[in-house]
Design brief:
Length: about 400
């Protein structure tokens, strides 16, 4: 058999089919991985005002667009001031364009129509939270909830989908700016192990052990499950969405409502409106005290608080040793000298005369901050001769003879 015959030798059909199936499976998995995950936008550092309508005419399209954005900044500032302070938009103070440029963080184009000399659009304006806070008169910190793990579930065609594949509902929650909300949402991107751990079936699992593991892994303390069921009238026609705001591992219903989009192109806008209403329902539940933490989700039992003074006193008592010291006291002067010498030692907190015997051996009760061995070493370093006796030690100066 020549080299050419070996090179073009027919491949068995089974091997060919197995190779083709493995390649198709790898390509499907790669394509499936690309369809998962939507990174949420940054939800910190900005106030957002959406739905600002502008209609500006100018000589050129660029001038009309620039004028429309400046007009959106002026209107957005007044709308934000009215929302924060709870007053009508007419009472909002006006700011010069230079100040608005310094506190504005960006323009979000929701919908726009650009003509040769006219600009019509619906815009959103972002304001820097730190710079705009002083001008808004915001004082103190806004009360926020505990970290809430968000698992959005979309029902379409009778099939629930969470992070198993990329959905319009997941995209809507990814672009939702949660910094304006009192709910501390923990949003995941849906990549890696998220589709396996946070699937639609998990939202109906009653077991608390798995929930506690998920909350600990994602750094959350509770769960919210916003759901939407989509009903399409006909392909490309109106879309009806039935929204449900659920909370906790038992999926308690907080609010329900229905919205409608005129066509499939209006589905993202309808979902955005649904998220705003769901967020408002969650905030209302937080203010009314309905967002109480489930005790079964707590991993550890809280430790009873103990005043720091009591702890320090207990430590001081535990570290203090009481030692019985015997010393020769032939007269009152020797008694006084021994007592003063013991009081002057480092670590001694108190000296009491337990047994007085002038002309004999007196017993002192010494309170020492440390173990008895450290007290014995301190005595030796000061020139005392130390002998162990029953119940304590016996001390004498090196020049003194030992008494029988």
């Amino acid at each position: 058999m020549t080299f050419a015959d070996r090179l073009f030798r027919p491949v068995p059909l089974s091997i060919f089919c197995a190779t083709l199936f493995a390649g198709a499976l790898a390509f499907a998995q790669l394509e499936r991985a690309d369809e998962r995950g939507v990174a949420p936008i940054d939800g910190s550092g900005s106030y957002e005002v959406s739905g600002v309508k502008v209609d500006v005419a100018a000589r050129t399209a660029d001038q009309a667009r620039t004028g429309g954005w400046r007009e959106a900044q002026r209107k957005g500032w007044k709308m934000l001031w009215a929302r924060v302070n709870g007053k009508p938009v007419e009472n909002a103070p006006g700011l010069p364009d230079s100040t608005l440029d310094s506190i504005s963080g960006g323009i979000v184009v929701e919908q726009e129509q650009i003509g040769p000399n006219r600009y019509i659009a619906s815009l959103g304006v972002l304001f820097d939270r730190a710079r705009a806070g002083e001008l808004l008169g915001v004082k103190g910190a806004m009360r926020r909830s505990a970290p809430m793990l968000v698992i959005p579930v979309q029902w379409s065609g009778g099939t629930p989908v969470s992070f198993e594949s990329r959905s319009e509902w997941q995209k809507a929650w990814a672009r939702f700016r949660s910094n304006n909300s009192a709910i501390d949402y923990v949003r995941v991107s849906g990549t890696g192990a998220d589709p396996v751990l946070l699937n639609a079936a998990q939202t109906r699992r009653p077991g608390r052990g798995w929930w506690r593991m998920l909350l600990d892994q994602y750094g959350a303390a509770d769960i919210v499950v916003p759901e939407v069921v989509l009903f399409r009238q006909w392909p490309g026609g109106p879309v009806i969405g039935r929204f449900t705001a659920r909370h906790g591992p038992d999926a308690a219903v907080i609010d329900q409502f229905t919205l409608k989009a005129d066509s499939g192109d209006g589905l993202p806008a309808m979902l955005d409106r649904g998220i705003e209403r769901i967020d408002a329902a969650y905030v209302r539940a937080l203010q009314e005290g309905a967002f109480k933490a489930d005790k079964s989700l707590v991993i550890e039992t809280p430790v009873e608080e103990v005043p720091i003074e009591d702890v320090l006193n207990q430590l001081a008592v535990a570290a203090t040793s009481t030692i019985m010291v015997q010393a020769d006291t032939p007269d009152a002067v020797a008694l006084r000298a021994n007592e003063l010498a013991l009081r002057g030692m480092t670590g001694v907190t108190g000296v009491q005369t337990g047994s007085l015997a002038l002309g004999g051996t007196s017993i002192f009760r010494v309170s020492f901050s440390g173990p008895p061995t450290a007290f014995r070493d301190a005595l030796v370093s000061r020139g005392w001769q130390v002998d162990d006796v029953a119940g304590g030690v016996r001390i004498r100066r090196g020049s003194q003879p030992a008494r029988p």
